[in-house]
Specification:
Layout: E1 2-8, E2 12-21, H1 23-28, H2 32-37, E3 45-56, H3 58-74, E4 77-81, H4 85-93, E5 101-103
Parallel strand pairs: 2-3, 3-4, 4-5
Antiparallel strand pairs: 1-2
């Protein structure tokens, strides 16, 4: 899993996620979002661009849920942007598409 910080302003930021979101990759980056986006990232609006995510396993789902919970408890908001079809399938199978806010708008910069 590769994280890269996109646009950031006072209201929030965009973090792009590429590659597999799995046990191996999430274990190495326990609080990777705070490392890349700043310690206050959970208190703002944070968009995770998952358009280049190639795989999502149960550990990846757990990581996303932890990020969502942390944002919610910190007064922020987590949005999943343009998740790859394989990610959408996993989220729908687990009925998590009703838990996460998912932005499927094409071409959002």
């Amino acid at each position: 899993m590769k994280l890269s910080l996109g646009p950031k302003d006072d209201s929030g930021c965009v973090v792009s996620i590429a590659g597999p979101v799995t046990q191996k990759t999430t274990a190495m980056t326990a609080d990777a979002l705070a490392q890349i986006a700043g310690s206050d990232c959970y208190a703002r609006n944070m968009t995770l661009d998952l358009s280049e995510a190639t795989l999502l396993d149960s550990s990846g789902v757990n990581w996303l849920l932890k990020c969502h919970k942390q944002a919610k408890s910190s007064g922020g908001k987590l949005v999943l942007r343009r998740p790859a079809p394989i990610v959408v399938n996993v989220l729908k199978l687990l009925k998590l598409d009703s838990v996460f806010e998912i932005d499927t708008t094409p071409g959002v910069a």
